[in-house]
Each structure stands twice: as structure tokens, then as C-alpha cells.
Fold each of these.
Amino acid sequence: MVSRATAFLHSSISQSPYLNTISFLAMNHQRLLFLAMILSIEAAQLASAQVRCQNNGNYTRNSAYAVNLNNTLSDLSRNVVDTGFYNASSGNGTDTANAAVLCRGDVQLSECRDCIGEARENLLRSCPYQKQAIRWDERCMVRYSNASFYGEMETSPMWYLWNPYNTTDPERFVEVLRGLLDRLRNNAADGGTLRKVAAGNESGPAFQDIFALLQCTPDLTKEECSSCLINANTNIPASCDGKRGCRVMSPSCTLRFEIFSFYNETRLREFDPLPPPSPPAPTPPPSSSGKGDGNTTRNIVIIVVVSVVFSLILGVSAVIWLGKRKTQKSKQVLYKNVDEISTVESLQYPFDTIKTATNDFSEENKLGEGGFGSVYKGKLQNGQEIAVKRLSRGSGQGLVEFKNEVLLLAKLQHRNLVRLLGFSIQGMEKLLIYELVQNASLDHFIFDKRCHTHLDWERRYKIIGGIARGILYLHEDSRLKIIHRDLKASNILLDTEMNPKIADFGMARLFRQDETQGNTSRIVGTYGYMPPEYIIRGQFSIKSDVFSFGVLVLEIISGRKSNNFRSGDNVEDLLSFAWENWREGIAANVVDPGLRSGSGSMSEMLRCMHIGLLCVQENAGERPTMASVVIMLSSASISLTVPSEPAFYFSGGGYTPRRSHYSSRERESSVNILQSRASVADQSDHSSNNDVSITELHPR
């Protein structure tokens, strides 16, 4: 970094005709500012090494695994070769220690070895007893595990780091960047078994060049490398939107772009394959005189030069003509078929690939089924498990909703949102490919008598917090304000560590940051989770999702469904039951009996119930924002306001809004809608494993 910055400064001085210091500073003000930006960014990059101690078991100080791990790590820096990649393992069976290193493709060998040595010591200090860990920094990556990972593509965990400066023309910048990354991705994936790295630059807006470097571990296949980099590319909009630079790092691949040259181009060229030797020039025939020899030689040179130049002109013209024709043709096809999803076209999977992965959508692979189709478990050729949402041809979700979900999820990246891997279209078939979330959906655990015991209060509280952070990201932290409109227990998936992931964005709506409310005549969602202003007047806002979240909180605490609740001999709704018990000072009656007898904090449970009741108030303006909810959940010292009655009450004839500011016609309409929903819910009540998107659709 220092050498590049010094060279940049030296070039500024040498190019300036002024020796006077003041004159030099005045003439090179912008260059010095740019140099300062480079120095600050690269200093931050070097100082921001990231360590992840992963949950794959622990070991003790003098165990066999500890000995094997030390032996494996001690050989890494010594044995790494000029290509920057090395893997090793020690031991047998469950005590085997596997490790690998990957230095950035432009780093010198000595610098690579220094980085590995530093990373090794840092990992052992930061993760003293974890069997699996990884460390990234600007120059290298070091990882180890008790599980074999050689030749396995892994995109998790993932680390992001972004340039603090914004671009002046984001749309043009993204357009140029996308083309550059696509080109470099193909070049990197085409690398051999020793190196898979590519770097280059393109001219961007405001006369700025965009530089990028992409790299995979060379143990991956071409397809796996490409898939890993595509996955890294899809994380750029969420983490680095509008920024001049970004780094996305995963165990199997890395990606970085900046508006300055951050890599050693000379070092990268050292590994470029040598061009094939030129064929020997034809031997000219002998001439009878020296003058004739000179003329002949000169004529041959002229002919050869003219021929080469003419050939180059023809070649360049042909390439330009073919390129324009191909571009025009591809644009025509693109705009004709998938105009609205062109921004995520690189995520498209061949339909046959997904068909094979799901065993031709066999019943054995089916995970769930809902109003918009079925969800299947699949496994790609690289071993990655996926969940495939196959939209039914007669479903309410047509091409518009399908593209809506693709566009949304391609731009959304958060640990509490289900991650979109790609999509596929063939004829009437429309598929969405997601990460497979190993455990079932939340409703499978909290409403099933056999499974709800797996959720103690600590896990339930973690789930509530994760859902809240996911919704907050949608409302405030993502590029666009997004209203989910179908938050419910079956749309919350749980991973292996019981972390919640919000799924099903088919009904989501995008808002500009200055928009606060929308209206619709098509009411979609699920009975029991929708607020009154949405059911009666078709009005939705971020407070609609807040209401749904409040219902979820009460369900998680009580272990009971909001729309199918029985208290003794009486049938009522969960919201009324929780409100009445809270008002009478006996809120503990609402808590799941399994939690009451457990070790969880009852005061924490009752505080969460209080927050839930604040979220389901009838007046949307009285409900808190998700930002406030996250703060309430994270700090017990913040006082909570007294909630008003929930939005609905149950009275023999059906559900009705509590307050009188709705007209009689609106109140009657709400009763009819909710009664019809209740009958449908009673007939089709079921839960589904990993139901990535199961949505009930009922027109108003």
C-alpha cells in the first residue's frame, strides 16, 4: 500500500513544473485529496481483518485434535507456493484437522507468507478452542476445520467491507460495474487448478475508472467458481449500494472493486500464460547484388507490414460488427422476454439443472405446499442443498409477482432474511431457488406439542429479536422501504442454530423512502395477522408489518395460534385473551406452560408480551416503529407506554373492530371478510416444513 501511494505522490511531483511547495499544493490539490482517500481506505482495509469462530464443536488444550491442528497450521506459511494457495491436513477420523490458505493473486510470496503467519497466530488467540475458524484480511485468507472442505464450495460465513464514499452517478456506476464483474468472473472461473483470479478495469462515470479483482480457491470447478462469484455479486447491492468500493469475502471466493488501482498488475501478469511462439519468417530468395538484397528486404518488410495492418483492420472491424450485432440481438431477446428482471439475469439457472436437483420434483422431495405452489428440496451437482419454489400455473402469483420477488430478494441480504440463490423460467414454469433452511418453519415448532419443547425461552427470545431486526432492515436499512404484507409463523424459517429467516416476498410492496402509506383493492395475506385498516380500507404501511409482528410475538410467548384459540370452554382470539389477562394483572396465564416451568425470565416474557400488545393496537399511529421495537427488546431500562385494546374482539358472530371510527358499512364488511377467512382457515389449517413461500390469497 505504501509503495503504491508513494509512487502516486512521486508521479504528481515529477509531473509538476513547479518546485515551489505552495504552487505544488495548489496545482495538485485534487490529487492529494485522492491520495489521502486511498491511504485512509487501504489503511482501514489492512486494519480490519475479520475472524469468525464457527460453531462446529470445541476441543481441549492437549487433545489429539489440538496436536493435529498445531501441526497443520505450522506448515502453512512454509509450504505455500508462488500461486498463493495451499491446503493440508493432519490426523485421522474425527480428530483430523484440515486447513487451507489463499493469498490475493497479486501478493508477493514473501508478503503472502507473512500474512499467513500473522493470521495463524491471530486465529489461535481469537478462537482458542473452536474446531472451525476463518480469518480474512486484505492480503490473505486462512481457515481450518475438523470437517474436510477441499473441493467444496462454501459461501458462508460472508464478510463485507465498503468504501465510505458514495458515487456521483450510481446508476451508471452500477451498469459499468456489472459488465466488468461479469467479464472478470468468466476469466477467473476459466483459471486452472493452480490459480483462479482475474483483475481489470473499465471507464466509469465522471471520468473515473473502476478497478476490480475476483478470485476463487483453485480447488473449485469452473462452474463452482462462477456460482460462488455470482453469489458474492448478489450481495453487492445490499451492503455496498452507491459506494465507490466494496469487498465481499467468503471461504471459497472473494470480490473487490474500487475507483483506484489497488492491485499489483505486474505481479498478476507474471502468471499469465505465455503466448505461443510466432512462426519463423520465410527466408527470402538469394539476390545477385547487395543493392537488390536491400530492395528485396525492404519490399518484403513493406508487404508484411501492410498485410498485418490490413488483417488487423479487417479483424477489428469484424469483431466490432459482430459485437454490435450480438449486443443488439441479446438486447432484443432480453427486452422481449425478461425486461423487468434484467438486473438479476446472471442468477438464472437452467431449468433442467433444477429439475435434476429435485429428482423431477418428486413427492419425496416436497417440503410444503400453499396457494402459490409447492416447495421442493434439491441438491445441485456441487453438493449445495437448495429449496425450490415451483409456482403453480393456475396460482394467483403471475409473472409480475414472480419478477417482483426476484427483484426484491436479489437486492436483500440480511442474516434474518431467506437468501435467494437464483431463478428459472421455462414456458409456463417459474421457479425460485433459495438457500435451504435446514429446520422447519416457526409454526412447526411453536404449535406442535411434540416440537415446541425444543424452544426454551432463550431461543424464543432470540427468534423474536431476529424477526424484529429482519423487519427493521426491510423498513429502514435496505435500499427501498419494503412492506412484507404476509408476516406469519409459517413464513419464518429456522436454520440449524434456530436463527429466524423471513421468507415469502411474493406479496411485498416497495415504497420510496418518502412514502408512508399505500392503498389496494386486492387484499392479500393471512387471517389473524392483518390489521383492521388493511382489511377494511385496503390501507397498508410499515405499521401493517408491525401489527403482524405483534401477533407473532404473542404466538411465540403463548405457543398458541391467534386464529384458532380456545380458553377453557370459550372460543376467543389470542389478542383479546392476552389483553384481558394483562389488564387484570395475571398476564402469566398467557405464557406457554412449558416456559412457566422453565428457567427463563418471567419478567422478560411479560415485557415481550407488553411490546406485542403495543404492536397490535387498533390505531396504526399508536403502534411503535420497528426501530423502537428493537430498542425496547435490547434494553430493559426503557419504559413502555400503556397499550390500548387490540384491534379486534371475538363475539360469537365473528371478529369485529373495537372502535367506532369505522362506518357501519365498513364494520359489516370486516365481519364478512373475517368470517369467510375463518371458515377457509378451519378447512385448510396446516403447517409445512421449510415452506419458503406459502401465502393465502383472498380477493376483497
Amino acid sequence: MPTPDSAPLPADRFLNRELSWLDFNSRVLELAEDDSLPLLERVKFLAIFASNLDEFYMVRIAGLKRRQSTGLTVRSPDGLTIREQLERVTARTQELVQRHSDVFNDDVLPRLEEAGIRIVRWDELEEGAALKLREYFRDQVFPVLTPLAVDPAHPFPYISGLSLNLAVSVHDPDTNAPRFARLKVPNNVPRFVPVGSHDSPATAVFLPLEDLIAAHLNQLFPGLDVLDHHFFRVTRNADVEVEEDRDEDLLQALERELARRRFGPAVRLEVAEPMDPRILEVLISELEVSPADVVHVPGLLDLASLMALYDLDRPELKDEPFVPTTHPRLSEGETPKSVFATLREGDVLVHHPYHSFATSVQRFIEQAAADPHVLAIKQTLYRTSGDSPIVNALIEAAEAGKQVVVLVEIKARFDEEANISWARSLERAGCHVVYGLVGLKTHCKTALVVRREQGVIRRYCHIGTGNYNPKTARIYEDLGILTADPRVGADLTDLFNVLTGYSRQTNYRTLMVAPHGVRNGLIEKIRREVRHAGEGRPAGIRIKANSIVDEKIIDALYEASRAGVRVELFVRGICALRPGVPGLSENIRVRSIVGRFLEHSRVISFVNGGEDEWWLGSADLMHRNLDRRVEVLLRVCDERSRVQLEKTLAPAMAPGVRCWELRSDGSWEQHEGRDYQAELMERIHEIAN
């Protein structure tokens, strides 16, 4: 008879990843529902929730529907068929959309009005305001509108993804026949049209653009009677699948697929309530969606556009501004220090947005570009900003005669076009540009600077958890190591030879590299903790990640729990592991923190018999990261950096912190308490001063 430790793992040990993601977005929505937060911060979370849901449908639901259309009968690890997953996701989504609309319509809108920020409808306007808006419509909006008739001579028009539209019913008095037309709300005109001059900063009144258009439909259909109009919005499959042929230029293949993406099949139809059933039937038929794909929205569609309200200059309705500090080892007072001189004294662990990206990672690349002793810069770019100082520095370095090698991942989802543009700019400047590896996305965040110092070559490195993007570095929580450790420099040299050449190296000194080394490396270290526990030595595992989905790693964590190893997981988003199940995972605790900053870093620590081992890098514990991406985890060898990581991670798992805890039934329970991120801001500020 098997012992409890060797008993088979139960079949229901995994949670559904799609439903777990919806739970994450529900946590975002809970912040919008939290009336203790500043009002415009709640507006921001309403917009983030809507934007998240758009991407979820464009990618995840689109993927499920694509697999369903192929007739695949595979079940998810939690045992659900594709049809069952779609049914559950649809029901959960409609519930969340209702909550989203309720908090906006019934709570946030009235509070905005109390604060002097109003969103009005056309019939609420005074005559003078309406007259000015008629002029605005005539001069700014009417010229860009294109009503498209639907009849035997005019087929149903293409409806672009995420566009806001009006379905208009008109009557022809000459033929006594009903007509139908589609009118797209232009996306190059502000969604919320200012009403009045807004001379007072305490007062701002807006009219939704679709309301302005609806009030002037008679001008668009002269000679016809406008009977009715309804607002709707379509979401399309936007996941690019590039057929990578070793003999075809990857850039050209991706550009071809991007052109196809806008014509992807519809996966969601949002309609504003109430919707005429006959019009809805036409939309369902012409868009080739099922009634289950229809999401009924009370009130305004596309609340992602609420970010325009967040941008209002109303500081009293927002969080107090936070100014990142320069890492104390990278400056002397207000005077920047040489990054190279600092790193020769030891590693620097930077924690964004608490530490300034501009005065650490960005300065590292900028100083390298300007330094006459630097011979080469090699860097990976996954996502960066529209006006990227990092890219500009690399261009300047190439123009100064340095060897610059940049791996631009042109398959980075939704940043493909921007990355293609950056790649071409870098090529024109003389940089050596590589587009990635066939069949893999290069997701690791690495930079290598080669410098000649007194006749000796020294390598300086950065390995991080976040993108080289100064804009997101102000709102994404990420970690990075700046180091002159020769072992790390040798590893990055080898890694870039893999990325740019034909090297097939898989073994490294200080790195675990996916797709060959991360899963197996982590499982081996988890099993090492099991051995330590069995021998009575200190054992424990802590993991901070965006998502934990990989079944093999989850099973290894279950085995660790059954061996008595304490496992603490800090997961922002998806978690397919079921904690707290007797005999399976009673030693595992899962916590999520969603707040002002997007928790984005990936950190793993092992007690390792009392000799703590720390790793950080770009990899989430998901199939795509471990099997289909180039990811890097770096072993943190510097003692000061390990202490700093402990001081960063331990408070997140401490009692009395505001968080959500995952229960064994898959539900999340919110706990009130101290604001972990606020405590980190205060601590960083105290250290800087």
C-alpha cells in the first residue's frame, strides 16, 4: 500500500487558467470598487479592467475558439472541454461586465459629478452648449464619417476590431422600405468631447462622441427617416501566428501576418442595452458569431477610453505623485557616478519603479554609448517606448563606431509594428540587428557592454525582469542586476552567440536559460528542497511571478508540500495550483497583490539547507515561457543584493498586508491591512534621504 507521500496526485489538482485570469481581472475591478481610493484612481482601474478584458478576448478566447473550430477534443488540465471552458468564461465575463458597469454608472459617475467632472448626454445640454457642439460636429466630425448602407447592392461592411459603431435603422418614404446602415465612430477624434471652455480646473463636462454623432444622424441620411440607432463593438482574433520558414525573411512573414490580423474572425460582440432584437439578429448573422458571444453592456461601451479622464489635471483626485529615487550607489548627492566604476566595487540591484530607471539602467546604456573605451554593446529588446532613449543611445553608439548588436523581438504581441520600425532605424544607423530565433520568442531582458580598461577587456551586464521601457518602468514593478561579475559576462557572451549565431550551448555558469534549462533546473532545485526536508535540514521555497501554470512545476511543488517543505507563492495573475488541500498542498500558501504598481518581477528563492539561493529573471512558470521562449534566470551571488531581495519579498508574505489569498476551492479572499507598495515607497525614500 502506498504511503501518503507516494500516493498518486489527485486528478482535480489544477485550476482552470482562463477562469483564474478572470479572477485576476476581478481583483482589478475590486480596486475600482474601493471607495477608499482617490476617485480618478478608481477611474483608472475601470479603464484597465476593460483594456485587460479586450486583450483576453483577442488572444485567449480567440485561441480557444480556433482550437474548437479544428474539432480538437482535448481537455484542459483541470478536465474541461473547450466548449465547457467557453461556457464558463462567458458566464463569468457577463457577471464581471455587469459589476463593471454598475460601479461606473451607480457609484463612480455620481462621485465624478460631485467633483465637477460630468459625462452628459445630448438631451441634457443647454442650448448654447448644443449650438457650439453642432459647429464642432460640422467642422471636425462630419467630414470623417462614412455611413455604409446594407442592402442587396451594398454587402455588410467589414467591422474593424475594437471599433465603436452605430447600427442605424432608417425608413425610405419613397419605397416605404426599412433600411439598415453601419456608422463607425472615428478613433482619431477624442472619445469624450469637451462641453464648454473648461476654464475652471475644478469643472469639466464631456459628451461621448457617439452621442454627438447620434444626435446628428439626420444630416447623414438626408431624405430618409432615422428610426433608431444602437451602439455595438466587435472584438476580433488578434493573435498573430507566423508560419516560420527558415528560407523566408522573418520580417516579411510577420508583416504579411500583421496585414491579415485586422481581418481575424470576430470573437465577441458587445452591445449597449437595450438592443433591438432584430438588429442584434442581423449583427450576429453578418459577423458570424453565436448568441453566446454577445456581451450585453449597461451604459457606455469601451470604458478603456476612461483613461482620458484620468489624464485630467486634478491632482487632488489621484494618488500623491511618487518620484523614483536614484539608487544610492549610483550617485553622490546630485552628481551621477560612473556606472562602470560603481560596478567594479560590486553588483547593484535596482528595484523599479522605486529606483529610477532613467538614472540606472538607461544611464548604463547611455554612458556605454558615450564612453570611448566601450568597444561593443549587445542588447535584447522585447518592448520599448515610442520615443526610446535606449534605442537612441544604441543608435548613437553605432554612429560613434562601436559594435552594436541588438536582438529586436519583432513577434512581441501588439508591439510588432513598433518593433519592426525600431529594427529598421537601428539597421540604418549601422547596428547589427537580429530578429530572433525561428520558433521562439526572445523574451529575456539582457544587456552586455564590452569595455577596454588598461589593455584588459572587462564585461558589464544587466539582467532584469522587465522591458527596456522607461514609460512602463514608472508603473511596472521590476528588478534588475547590474554587475561586472566575470561569470555573468561570460554567460551573456555565450548567450548572445546563441541568439545571433549557430551556437547550441545549453549549459551556463550563473544562468538558467529556457527553453532547455529553466523547467528542469527549477524542478531539480525543488526536489533538492525535498531532500533537505527529508534529512531534517532547513527547506523552503518562495516564488514571485506573474503566472504559475506549468503542470510539471506545480506537481513538483505539490511533492515538496507533501514532504513538509513550506512553499510561499506571490502570484499577481494566473495560478493553476490549488493550495491548502489536505494531503496535497497544506504547506502551500498563495497570495496576490494588485495595487498602484503592476507587480511584474519574477524572483525565486530556495532555503537550500540554510545556504539561501536566489534567482531572478524574465520567466513566468507557463508553457510558453518554458517551451517557446528564450528566457533567462540569473543566480544572484552578491550578498548585498540577496539581503535586499529578502527585505523586498519577505514583507509581501508577512501577516497584516493588504492582499488576496487563494483558497483550496479556487476562490480568492481579500484581506485588508498595510499597503505593501506604500511601505516600499516609504522605505526607499528614507534610504535615499
Amino acid sequence: MLALTVANAIAATPTVHGQSGYVNMPNANVEADSTFTIGYGYDSPYGSFWAAVTPLPFLQVTGRYVSITGIPGFDRNPDGYGSEYGRYKDKIADAKLQLVKESTWMPAVAVGATDLLGTELFQGRYIVASKTFGSARNLEASLGFGRNRPSGAFAGVRWAPVSMPGWAFVAEYDAIDYAKDFRAAETDAGQRKKGPVVAAEYRWGWLGAQIARHRDHFSANAYISIPFSEREFIPKLYEPAYFQAKNAPARVSLEEWRSSTHPAALVQALVRQDYKNVRVELDGATLRLSLTNNRISDMGRAVGRASRTALAFAPAGVRAIHVTYTKLEQPIATYEFFDIQRLSDYLTGLADRESFLQTVLVRYSNPADKVGEERSLLAAIRDDGAALGVQINHDGNFVQVSSEDREANRFKLVPKFSLFFNDPSGALRYETAVAANYDKRLGEGLYFNSAFKLNLFENVSGVTQPSNSLLPHVRTDIAEYKRGGRFKLQRALVNKYMTIDEHWYARASGGLYEEMFRGAGGQVLYLPQDRRWAADLTVDALQQRDVKGWLGRRDYKTVTALGALHYQLPYDVTVTGRAGRFLAKDEGVRLEFKRRFRSGVEIGAWFTKTNGKDITSPGTPADPYNDKGIFLSIPLNITLPSDSQAVAGFAISPWTRDVGQMVASPGELYELFEDPRRDLNAYDGLGNFAERRDEQQRDVITRPVQRLPDAWPRFRWRVEQSVSATPTLPQWARGSLLAGGAVLASAALDKPVDRFVRPREDNRVLDAWGKAGKAMPVVLAGAAGAAVAFGDNRMQNMGIISLQSIAGAAGVSMVSKRVIGRARPNEELGASSHAGKRSDASFPSNHAAVAFAAVTPFAQEYDAPWLYGLAAIGSLGRVADRQHWVSDVVAGGVVGYAIGSWLWQAQRDDSRFAITPGSKQIAVTWSGTY
């Protein structure tokens, strides 16, 4: 155990920049999967507030907020603009990918990149290898090579004495050429040189610190590492006990139960356990319940407590109990218990889980499962509501005033604190307020939601720099709204939630959506049986509110429409793609990635690409800014002594941008149903149902991490098959002659076609054709990916071959561009001239190569030659847009067709790979001989 502890300490120590390594130099290791580390490092002249996460076992991502001592953030101006910003600051994103994990004889190998986005002042690339030595594996050595930052060869050594647990001593060769850093002559960086560095470090549990000595100065780094792979960090010391059968009334017959107060007593017992929207129906000999729980985080556990209570109050003669779990009165999952005695035995520990599972059906709900008010035995029973009270350390709030009744009518008064970074008028802005929320149930699935806010202390209103955005100011005027008034009506709207059919849900909304917009709209969500994916469509007609925060309005109006596809990958990674019209009337796509850890913590990022031209720095007319950001979601039940569904969310993104923006959703359906759906598909769907010791010892309340299967056997098989099917020399010769003849023949059309297109560049038809041609490869590649994700075995294999063909054709095309370097038609240099930038050369057309590579496997497998026509029409759109000559497109098509045909011929008989979705799992099978 000691040797293992020492090895882990060696492998995962952050540098002053956050990436795992030594002092400034990286090693080839990444932190353990699901580890989140946050810290501060100072190495003159750079101070770095950083956060690093390992979202996948082989990937480490780091975000840094770096300040540079000696350089003001903004030059002094007579008007004082930027005078409060302080020293220069920059946001940086780094990444490290471990290619090879250390083994007995092989070192770990990783590649990394620094400053991937934004200003790229600290941009660098490197490759590094690391190996541990000794029987205790307490000595590690690394050797690497970098470009830019670090520059050239670098090395590092770490020794963790076995006799000094927690301590380690470090030496490295720092290969950063500091004199080339941004404005180095004005800072201490100009005096620093490459050379040796030594350091001492200490790690105690989650905490760690390092002190290092350089040639002429010291550096320091301190951090805390949080293992999000843990299920919870604080034991549930104050969790209320489940209902005790000794507190139940005496059993009565079915007829007596219907006419007595037993149904009301059952409801009251459930309400006292935080159940809401409780409905009870006795259907023959089946006791049916419809309910939700706003506190218990695991759906199986919530249903287990409800079932235990229902069993205690059930009349004699009941043969089955059905419990339907709902959200906002919409049925999500139904648990059917057919054997009452077996249910009782399992809850009391007399039956094992396997025998109990034979008497349980866990399934998706349909509209008929929900017990409506008109069918409920309690339709006329209402209570007076819960009393208003002060709660300390509840739901993650230090203090709150709240009230909530059994119909989920609630009032809550809580303190709020917000931070805003990086505005020129002040690097850090804050807002402290009191928020009041009032939610009222108006009818079945019909709710009124409102929010008020009173600002107490803030300096966001001090942001005075006007926006220079050329887009409609949907977000960049936020400072005006903060100055508009201290007391505001943030939200006031009516939401109607509906279950259209099994797997189909809908929401209709109208009112004040958020601080800046009001409107009306709706959303439709489809949750298929296959839990890997879901899809929704959201449409909202919106008008901008005025800055005072009440009922006033501005003139700006728009309609947003976004379709979304959510897909789950291994390691509990969810990818969401949104496409449509955004808030500033810009159209495009938004990609979101998030990883859910065992603790329930989620970390993710998004990137948006639209036709909106945001040229605010660092955006330029040639390279507009694209909206992007990262977010962290922390379920508070892992940090509280009692269970809770409350979640703390953090997001870091530019807060004064207009491009790629979305209105705050009145009620995002996928987010509403995501956790219950995950619980439904975790193991057997029961979760921590009975709260028994054997359940606590098993990892039953979190879905198992689906890891990527070993890709090497299938990769090796495909390579072997492809090599064995490589064309012979005569085939190469014959194919080359045919391809060369086609390209030469098409070259005769280059100039005539371009002479026809040139005067018609503004023609709407040609312009639309050009846009379609530009988008075609992306659409076809997406279709290939969809075939892998959703198709049967045959189509999945074609999708894999198509994606391989796309990668191969794109590679050949890009290399050919650099070698040939032909100018594009719109450069006006002629068909035989060289391009100004070889990487952007014209011959061959990359779009045509990708398009034909994508369709060829499907066209040949399914005898669908019309797919070639689709690829040809799209590719010729590049000619219509004067991005390519005709011969460029023909050459690209030949490349794509040749590679697609070769790989299809080699791998078409592969029936070994299959992805089979089930109600509780996804089976990945691979058969064959290797």
C-alpha cells in the first residue's frame, strides 16, 4: 500500500501551470480519472489561478487565468479607460493526451498543447515520455521535446523517499525561452534563462504545495485535488429514517379502505417524507401511486421509500403495487411489484435481490400510468400548505427562508452572489443580492413561476465601456440592465407541461423568461427506448425587455428555433448538438460535451459556430469570434449531511458577447428528465431501493462507467484486411490512367466554366449552390456517424468504413494541396498559377474528396449510384462559388472514390462489430479470429 501511495503521488503532481509534471515542465502522466484540481502558482512574473480536470482517463484539460507583473492591462488613457483593470491578464486553455500508459518495460508517452484558444501568447506543443523506477516505484524520470513553449529538449526527475511519506524532491531542466515571451523586455521574464530548477513538495490528502528555487528567484504552487470518482464526501448523518411499519394503522378490507381515512393517511405519511403531487388509486386489487420527490436524489431510493410506506398502509387483499415516478406531474418511470410478500421480504432483508427482481417490472411510463386527479381517491383532499420557516445550511444555502406544500407550491428567499471577470473597467466585478422565488401550481401540469431580485452590494453597474458589437445587442448591454434598478422582477411566466404519448413530452410557456427577454414558445422532447439518445425542438418568439426590469420593452424582436440531439458515449460522456437560429438572428450550430463522474459532478464545454460576425477582439473580420465556454455542475448531496437534489452550477464564458447566444429556458425538458432516466437505466433500475447494507456495499446507485472496449484487435483486423486488399501494380496502373484521363479531360472545362461563373457571382442560385457545396461534406460525415450510432450491424460497418475513407481522402487531399499549390479561381491568378498559401491551395478539392469518400461505401454496399450524383452536385457547388476549378473537383472525387472503394472492398464482409441497445444496457460484441 505504501509503494502504491508513493507511486500515485509521483504520477500526479501539478506544475505551477496546473498540468501534471514538475515545476514548469510536464511529464507524461495525467491525474487519476475524474480528478479535479484547483490551485494558484506564482513564478515571476507570472501568477496563475488554474483548474485542471481529467475528464477521461487519458486526457487532462487545464484552464488558467494568468496575470503578468510589470505590464498594465491597458495603456493609460486620458479618459481613464482601463485604469482599474490592473496588470495584464490572459485566459489560457491547455490539454495533455496520454498516448501510451506506462507498463513494465514501456514508459508512459503523452503529447500536449498549451494556449489552444484565444490570444495564444503562451502557445506551445510538446511530446514527453516518463518512467518510474525502483521496487517502490518512488523515482520517476521524464524526457521530452517541445516547440515554442517549451523550446527544445527538457527533462525532469522526482524522488519520493519511502521514509518520508508525503514528501517529494524535484529537479528539472526548464526549456522555456522566456526572452521570447510576450513583452518580456518589460518584465522579469526578459532576465530569465533556460536551466536547472530544484523543488521540494508536500502532499497531505487532497492538499499539496511546492516551493522551487530557480537561478535567481523562488516560485510557489499550492492546490487542492478533489476525486470526483468518490460517490459522496460527507456521510448522511442527518438523513431522515424511512417509514416504520409499526406506525401504520391496522389493515382493513379493500371496501373499507376505499371509504375510510386510510388513503388520506397514506398521502400524509408520504408528504411528511418530502413527496409531492401524490395521487393514490385502488384499481381492483392493485394499489397505484403517482408521485415525485424533490429531495431524494436517487429515483430508485425514492420509489423504495414510497413502496415501503404504501405496503404499510395497503388494505388486505392487495395483490400488486404500481408506483409511477413523475416530474412536474409528467410520468417518467413505472415500477410494478407483482408479489407483495416478496416485496415485504426484500424490504426487511428476508429475500435476496435476484429473487426479488423476478417479481418486479421497471419500465418507461405511458400517459395511462399517471393517476390523475379525477381518478384519485384524494381528489377533494387539500392541505393548507406548509409554514414559512428559516432553514440553516439547507439545499446548499447558508440560510434561507422557505415554504413548500404537498402540491409543490413553494416560496424561497435566498442570498445570491455572482462574479464577472475580465471587463476592461475592472478585472473582477461582483454582485450580491437577495432572490425570492414563488412557484404556484395552477392545475394539472400547469405552473406559474416567478423570481424577484434585490441587489444589495455590487459594482457591475460600474462597467461603462459601450459595446462595439455589430450584431443586435442581445447580451452586450448587460451592464445597462445591472444599472437599471436594484429591485427587479426577473421572471414571471406560466408553463404547461404535457405528456403527448409514451416517450413524448412537451412544454408551452409564456411570460417574462429572464432579465433581458420575454416571450412565448414551447418545446417537444422525444425520449426513445434506446437510452443512448434523445432529441428535442425548441421554438420561442421573443422581445427584449427594458433595463428597469418590470413590464417595459425594447423594440428588438426575434424568433429562435433550435433542434437538439443528445447522445451518450462511453465513460458517461454526453454530446449535444444544437442547430438553428440563435438570439441575435444568427444561424449555426452549437456543440456541447459533458462528462458525468461517479459522484454526479458534471464538467463540460461548448463551442458555437454561426454566421454572426463578432469582430470584437480577439475576433477579426477574417476570423470572427465564436462563442465558447466551460461549465461545472456539482450536486450538493455529495457535500451535505443529508440527501438533496439541489445543484450548484458554474460557467466561465464571455458575458458581453452577442454571437451564438440562447435565451434562458423556461423549463428545459431534457435536463428535467435526464437524471431520472439515468437512474432508470442504471443496473436493474432499482438503485438503493431498500437502503440495505448489501445495497450500500454494492455500487447500485450509480450507473457503471462504460469504458471504451479495447480497440486494438478490431483496428489490427481492419489494417490487415485493408493491406491484403491493396491493389496490385497492374490495377494501380490501370486506375491511374483512367483517373489521369478524367482529370485532364475536365481541365479543358476550367476556363470556360469560370468565365461563365465570374460575372454571376452575386446570383442567388449560385450562391445557395455554393453554400450547399460547402456544407455537404459535414452533412455526409454526420450521416456516416449516425450510421455507426443508430444503424444495424451492416450499416454500422459501412459507417465505420465511410469515416475511415473520409479520414484517408482528406489526408491525401491536404498533402496534395501542399505539393501542387494551385491557385484558386477567386485569386484571379489563372488556372496554372501557384496559390499564395499552399495549405489553402485549390487542387484537389478537399470537399469533393470527402464527399465521394463518404458516399462510396454506402453506394457500393446498397447498390445506390444516386449517392454519387448527390456528392457530385454538392462538389460542383464549390465551382459555382469560384473556390475550385472543375478539374479540382474531378480530382478530389477520384481520390475519394478510390479510397472509399478500396476500404469497402477490404472490409465489407466484417460482421464482427455490433452495438445492441437494450432496456438496461448496451451490448458491444466483437467476434472473429485475430
